[in-house]
Amino acid sequence: MITHQRYTIFFLIAVAAILSVAAIFLISPWFAIAALVLVPLTALGVYDLWQPRHAILRNYPVIGHIRFLLESFRPEIRQYMIEGDQDEVPFSRQVRALVYQRAKGAEDKRPFGTIENVYASGYSWLTHSATPVHLPDSDFRVRIGGPACRQPYGASLYNISAMSFGALSGNAILALNKGAKKGGFAHDTGEGGISRYHREGGGDLIYQVASGYFGCRNDDGSFSQEKFARITADPQIRMIEIKLSQGAKPGHGGMLPASKISAEIAEARGIPMGIDCISPPAHSTFSTPVGLMEFVGQLRELSGGKPIGFKLCIGHRREFLSIVKAMLKTGILPDFVVIDGAEGGTGAAPVEFANRVGMPMLEGLTFVHNALRGAGLRDQIRLGAAGKIISAYDIARAFALGADWCNSGRGFMFAIGCIQAQSCHTNKCPVGIATQDPLRQKALEVGDKSDRVARFHRNTMHALAEIAGAAGLTDPRDFMPYHFMFRQKDNVFLDGNEVYPYLPNGFLLADEEYPELADWYDRWERATAESFAPPEIPFGPFASRRKQPQPRIGLVRS
């Protein structure tokens, strides 16, 4: 009996079921109520004993289902009952509350002081001025468009990052776009094409062209010049972004099963129904750095001179230097580059990609900024940054490291009601954002949520004006690394110049080399405009020019 005691509960349920059925005839029909519960449980237990998939159910029939039930709402239990205010999974309660408060127009101040551990490694802070200034206007703008651009765009410093229709519901897309219209900022379409919900909202669009060429593809999946020219003639489309990779799953393609392709998704993407939709990992239109630049030039002409750029998460640093060399060789420059960090979000990604592939945003942004400085191109190309940028402090820090504007995806999702249920890939989003279920998305009321989107943007820009004024600046784009301090360990902190320095303009092209930048020169020499592939490296350890560690060079403001 002891060895089989795990079956006790099932045995008692089965006996009770038999007795309840007998009692219906012998005592009272009211025992049918008990039988309606106990008989199905007994049948479930019998099935558990014979099913081959779950060992726990075979050993613990009926009661084993409690384990799966608890597991199904474990995230909710953690989020609402266990999680601390600063536990990042992936956004802390404190961060989410900030967005909710600003989106609703509620009080966003905190009493009693910070809950941050200001002496912990990794803590950073802004250095304020003894002579702060007041900035009455917080509608900050940046002009995007280089010398070859005939239709430059005056973008807000904070915009909605790429999220596709299909990953997000129609109501979510419409609420985001209407909010962007009300607030005067831009909405990136994501790679899923331009849906009627994007157009109905009327907000400024950044049209993303990814490897699937959705909205501008031929039947075989190749790029269609005619369709691209026709789509981008729409004045609502203000910029075009070539997606090379995204932070949450760089180097990974995707597949939308035929069962999930609705008529609206098929229309937006320009794909047939009934066939799995493949997003390949790489573009078919180009395969070399020079090819990418030629594609940039082609899109600029086809779009009538609108700003053209590309988005990527930094992987091999040499490959980006190859792109820079292609810019110099062809004379074709993108109008902008968006750096997505490994901390970026997605509807679904393999755990290995989400956790361990790609460079985080701060390091990626710093690298791209300095690579363009090294080639003397930084002043001609605008930089966008994305990757868990929620607060005014996040934006200010990105500006200090080289960004000209910032994008946020999940921040604006919080603004329209996302509760971080992390069920985006299940089609069962509890608030109707990341789902195509018609009933679920009806819960998202577009009018109210679009107001929240605009209000979150406005209040964040107001906070950015306040934090810039506290630093004594008249424009947040004037933030520099030295405005920030970074704690390395308990009693050691460094100036931002030491952690994220600006490297000298043109140092990669200069005749005289800086010894402390030997690693940069090594990668620059290995980079080639003709290929992303690395040159042949001899067996054995790589021989760097740098013989010993060198101190970081100081900030160069020119």
UniProtKB/TrEMBL annotation:
<dbReference type="GO" id="GO:0015930">
    <property type="term" value="F:glutamate synthase activity"/>
</dbReference>
<comment type="similarity">
    <text>Belongs to the glutamate synthase family.</text>
</comment>
<dbReference type="Pfam" id="PF01645">
    <property type="entry name" value="Glu_synthase"/>
</dbReference>
<dbReference type="InterPro" id="IPR002932">
    <property type="entry name" value="Glu_synthdom"/>
</dbReference>
<dbReference type="InterPro" id="IPR024188">
    <property type="entry name" value="GltB"/>
</dbReference>
<protein>
    <submittedName>
        <fullName>Glutamate synthase domain-containing protein 2</fullName>
    </submittedName>
</protein>
<keyword id="KW-0472">Membrane</keyword>
<dbReference type="InterPro" id="IPR013785">
    <property type="entry name" value="Aldolase_TIM"/>
</dbReference>
<keyword id="KW-0812">Transmembrane</keyword>
<feature type="region of interest" description="Disordered">
    <location>
        <begin position="535"/>
        <end position="558"/>
    </location>
</feature>
<dbReference type="InterPro" id="IPR027283">
    <property type="entry name" value="YerD"/>
</dbReference>
<keyword id="KW-1133">Transmembrane helix</keyword>
<feature type="transmembrane region" description="Helical">
    <location>
        <begin position="7"/>
        <end position="27"/>
    </location>
</feature>
<dbReference type="GO" id="GO:0006537">
    <property type="term" value="P:glutamate biosynthetic process"/>
</dbReference>
<feature type="domain" description="Glutamate synthase">
    <location>
        <begin position="159"/>
        <end position="473"/>
    </location>
</feature>
